[in-house]
Structure formats: structure tokens, C-alpha cells
Amino acid sequence: MDAKNRKKILVALDGSDHSFNAVHYLARVLPRNTATIVLFSVYTKRPERFWDTEEDPFIDANADDGRLWELEHKRAIGEFLENARKTLLKYGFPPDDLLIKSQEKRIGIARDIIREAQSGYDAVVVGRQGMNPITRLVIGSVAAKLIAGLTTVPLWLMGTEVSFDSSAPLKLLVTIDGSDNALRAVKYVGEMTAGADIDITLFQVIRSFDFRLPGPDEHFFAPPEGAKWTEESREAHVVRAAFEKAVKILADTGFDHRRITTKIVSGVATRSGTIIAQAMTGGYGTIVIGRRGHSRVGEFHMGRVTNKVIQLAGKTTVWMIS
Questions:
Q1: Residue 148, Cβ neighbours under 10 Å: how many?
Q2: Which CA distances in Å does 201 have to 176, 182, 227?
Q3: CA angle, 237 as apex, 236 and 238 as ends, to 5°?
């Protein structure tokens, strides 16, 4: 691939098993010779307990312990990054496409990742959970900050389970709502994955129209006969037109049109729940969703459906496309 069309991917690694899942995942989703992969880590100079005592003149004995910890931590991170590079080499990625970069924390781990990401990357890949032992957290603190703060670069939030079985193609569930944002996400998927062993389903959810009126008694408004069907039919027509555009966009990027399917689910109560259910029952390893849908309200950096999908996805990887 020529330099103009090559992609650049930032893989944020913290030494955890969750973050290493990204390495195996990239081997399945990325065609070879199409991207530069930067294996990136931000490390802290000392553990938090040493920051609490650093200024205390009576416990200077901790200084040596802190320096030893720093050296060991840097060694361990370096080893982890090198293992990630060697794994990608075994998967067939060219050595020149793999770079290692680590740095001491400057502002904060998440903000340092965001600053690096803004220097020309096409994706940031991060584990849903990191080293935090509090396993009840749905999303780790660094991932949560990236979701909120990384608004200009697509974020790939790794699921907690990644299939290593390369005998079957990876399946992507690409959500469509007819918006320009959704069609840009489709083009992005094609440009990133064309040539990989991937099947894509373009998926749209049409909710049932709720005619409840606000208030404690939730009175129902009776619409004119056929109004509900007419509105749902109109939306389905819009979606089918969007599907046609999306298939053409994917084909134009070089993606094999024979590996594209479409599906509409209508009359459901929740879009996010239906997307998650489809991913689970259909064996999709990845959900692709726009950061925002139809809404163009600038102050809302993430749509409601997107936020719910991210919270519920758990085992499934989510691409959030800006």
C-alpha cells in the first residue's frame, strides 16, 4: 500500500492480559502491509504510595525502594512491549510496520494517550479493563477517560474475550441509522479492513413508536389509524436506501461485496439492547458504532445509544467512530 493510504494505529498497552488481547485481535482484523502499528505505554515513575511520602524527610529509606521499583517497572513494560511485537511478527506483520514507544507519565495516563493519538493516528486500541483489581468495574478508569476525551480519533475498545480461532472469519456488526456519521463509519471500516478475513453485517434497529404521554399515569395517545405503520415503513425505506449507499461505499474501498449482508430489526423497545443481543446471538466479535447518530447538537460528544452499547458490550469489542 502506498504511503498516502497507509494507516497508523496506536495500541495502548499497560502490561495487563486485557491489553494484550489487542495484539491477537489486530492479527485477525488488519490486512498485512497496510498499517504502521505503534505499541505504546505510559508508565508511572513510582507507585502511588511513594508519591504520598516523597516529601517526608523522615522516611528517605523509601527513596531507594522507589528507584528500584521504577527500574523494575520500566524493565517489565519494555519486556511486555517486546513480547507484543514478537507476537505480531509471528502473525506475519512486517518488522518495519511495528514500532515500540514508551514514556513516563507527563500529565496523566489517559491524557498522555490522547495527546499521542492526536499526532496523526487512525485508531486507538485500548483494553476495556486494565490492571485494576476491582473486577466489578465495567470499564477501567483509563478506558473511561478515553471514551469521554478522545473525540477526534476512532477508539477500539477491546472486549474482555477475544477469539484466537482464525479458522472462521471475524464478524463485524456495523450499525446503520441513515446518518452521515454512520456512512462515514462504514467507509472507515472498509478502509481499515479490506483484504482481511472478515464478514460484515450492516445492521439497523427500528424502535416501536411509543405514544405514551409524559406524566405519572403514562396515558396513551391514540394516533390516527395506520400512523404507526406509516412512520415505521418510512424509516425502513430510509434505512434500505442507506444500506445501498453503505454497500457501495464498502465495495469502493476494495471490500468484497459478497461478504456483506444487511439486516433490519423493527418493533423493538431498545436499540442498544437489540444491538447487544444481535452481537451475542450472531457470534459477532466486534460492534461498530458512530460516536453520534442523527443528533448534531455540538455539546453532546457521544450519543445515548452509543453510550449504552459501550456499557453493555462487555465481552465484545466496540469501535466508536468519530
A1: 12
A2: 10, 14, 30
A3: 90
Q: DSSP string covering 83-128, please?
A: HHHHHHHHTT--GGGEEEEEEE-SS-HHHHHHHHHTTT-SEEEEES
3-state SS class at 294: coil
Are residues 32 and 123 both part of a single domain?
yes
CATH of the domain at 302: 3.40.50.620
Same domain, 203 and 310: yes
What three-state secondary structure class fits 298? coil
257 lies in the same domain as 289? yes
Please give the share of the chain, as a percent, with pLDDT higher than 70: 77
Q: What is the pLDDT of residues 294-309, one digit of tens each?
A: 544 443 345 788 999 9
What is the DSSP secondary-structure string of 121-187?
-SEEEEESS-S-S-TT-SS-HHHHHHHHH--SS-EEEE-S-----TTS-EEEEEE--SSHHHHHHHH
Q: Which three cell numbers stand for residue 277?
A: 443481543
The amino acid present at 162, given as its one-letter code, is: V
Domain match, 297 and 213 both: yes
pTM score: 0.84
pLDDT in tens, 6-29: 999 999 998 888 889 999 999 999
Range of the domain at 295: 168-322
Q: Which residues contact 176 (CB under 8 A, 6 or more apart)?
A: 182, 186, 202, 203, 204, 239, 242, 243, 246
Query: What is the count of structural domains for the chain?
Result: 2
Q: Is 133 in the same domain as 249?
A: no
What average pLDDT does range 90-115 have in this prediction?
95
Cα 148 from chain centroid (whole Å): 12
294 and 322 in a single domain? The answer is yes
Query: Do 79 and 130 fall within a single domain?
Result: yes
Ramachandran quadrant class, 48 (left: phi over 0; alpha: psi -120 to 50; beta: rest): alpha
3-class SS of residue 320? strand
